[in-house]
Amino acid sequence: MSSYRDKKVITIGVVNELTGLSARMIRYYESRGLIFPERTERGTRKYSFSDVELLMEIANKREEGIQTYEIKKELLNENKKKTVRDQMIQGQLNAQFNMKKF
Predict the structure, then answer these.
(1) Distance CA 91, CA 74 (A)
(2) pTM for this one?
(3) Distance CA 94, CA 100 (A)
(4) Cβ–Cβ contacts within 10 Å for residue 75, how many?
(5) Whole-angstrom Cα distance, residue 94 to residue 102?
(6) Burial (CB count within 10 angstroms: exposed 0-12, middle 13-18, buried 19+), residue 51
(7) Where is the HTH merR-type domain (predicted)?
(8) Which one, out of 6, 18, 35, 64, has a CA that is 20 to 30 A from the CA of 12?
């Protein structure tokens, strides 16, 4: 079951209000591969609370002068670490409880 934080239900206008980022800037971060909104059948972008938090982190890093390619590299490294951690946990569960998937 996914957390409410990960459900893509927020429109770009609300994200704009919550973050102070313009719709243009939000779309730019999407084009740079930093954020991945879902799309409705009509093409409307939908964001999650986790996306809003990530956008705030990105904006803060940009204010510090960090380039988008550096932010993307950092995000990819974080995802790799999470994947390795999840695989290690899965291996421990398999060994301890003979579980196949958590």
Answers:
(1) 26
(2) 0.74
(3) 6
(4) 16
(5) 9
(6) buried
(7) 9-77
(8) 64
Indicate the pairing of strand 10-11 with strand 38-39.
unpaired
Per-residue pLDDT of the chain (102 residues; tens, 9 = 90+): 568 888 999 999 999 999 999 999 999 999 999 999 999 999 999 999 999 999 999 999 999 999 999 999 998 888 777 776 667 777 776 777 776 654
**How far is 29 from 24, CA to CA, in rounded Å?**
9
Residue whose C-alpha is closest to residue 37's, from 27, 29, 47: 47
Residues spanned by the domain of 59: 1-66
Half-sphere exposure of 53 (CA within 13 A, CB side): 6
48 and 18 co-located in one domain = yes
